[in-house]
């Protein structure tokens, strides 16, 4: 905890009014989208420059005060939660696009730039920033880098780390490092840039990022296909990947669709209902590509893998089909879902899902269980919805009991307990199911080098 004198000293490091201690601000900025932990920060500080971030970190070292980085607070692992009197460092005011290089197709951003802001900037330049997800309108680039965010286009474009050309970071000692200097080719030893991507602010804070852009896709077209069972989805993926360059391949269960249709603002994709749905996207660059997609659809119907389907014929229909997938997380938030974000190699997905579904069904027979995710890259989202009559604390306690069994299956398949949402506090006690004891020891040693006093987002990734 901080003292009044320390808070007054902190106020001298930033502009007037940029340190908040009122109850509403502490509540708002002390949490992310997770609901397991009550926010309890000491103060919120809003730097506007790299120099101010360095001064804050040096102040924290002097007084041994923990710092928690805060971006759009859309995280789902409690990595941005301040539950133990920490000072939250919000990057809301470091939100400028600093520079654009048309020849390198790069954009220099401050960490508070919102993902959608970068996407729209790229669009204005005739280019494309492909990392995309439902929270793009509020998530920030610094947070995306901190969790190595993935989203709906990973099958074609990869994770956030694929698009980071260079970083400027303030380490846990307050030192400023410039990493990789935006180079495409750089064979000069360790790439420290990659250490900070996915580190959740435990090594230091990103204060500037150079992001790569891509050619804008043309005539994006989506198909939603209804399948008789989950096992049919993988041969559908294989069939379409053999014929088209897919930009996305998602899936969701009929239980998810039921929740979405219950909103009343998105039409059903077609009249019939099926147990599972695949949503795929591709560039229909010419009529031959569209015809290939239809021929592949017909092949899948003949094989019994697909029962019904639709292909977008307009931009509005494309957006409506995507809403069936992208609105799921927001829609089910009303039920305080318990989330698991897990992954294996793509070929193992059907057996993996069946093993976990058997465990969940046996132990949660009265709970509403929803499956959806980025099936094209092996990432599944398991969501268990809280019954209205059950207290939140009791619900999370019941879900935690079965976590061990779920993660034992993840370990069996050499998978990951967190595919794209990070570790934070919600997954830190299960890290050993995806990382060996030796790996964890090396990770802790790396943290000690960059953050010797342990002030940078302590208690995240590992205790």
UniProtKB/TrEMBL annotation:
Catalytic activity annotation: (R)-2-hydroxyglutarate + A = 2-oxoglutarate + AH2
EC number(s) on file: 1.1.99.39
Cofactor(s) needed: FAD
Keywords: FAD, Flavoprotein, Metal-binding, Oxidoreductase, Zinc
Enzyme class, first EC level, given as a word: oxidoreductase
InterPro entries documented for this protein: FAD-bd_oxidored_4_C, FAD-bd_PCMH, FAD-bd_PCMH-like_sf, FAD-bd_PCMH_sub1, FAD-bd_PCMH_sub2, FAD-linked_Oxase-like_C, FAD-oxidored/transferase_4, Oxid_FAD_bind_N
GO MF annotations in UniProt: (R)-2-hydroxyglutarate dehydrogenase activity; FAD binding; metal ion binding
Domain FAD-binding PCMH-type: 37-216
Single GO biological process annotation from the record: respiratory electron transport chain
Subunit note: Homodimer.
Family the UniProt entry places it in: Belongs to the FAD-binding oxidoreductase/transferase type 4 family.
PANTHER family the record matches: D-2-HYDROXYGLUTARATE DEHYDROGENASE, MITOCHONDRIAL
Protein's recorded name: D-2-hydroxyglutarate dehydrogenase
Species this protein is from: Pseudomonas berkeleyensis
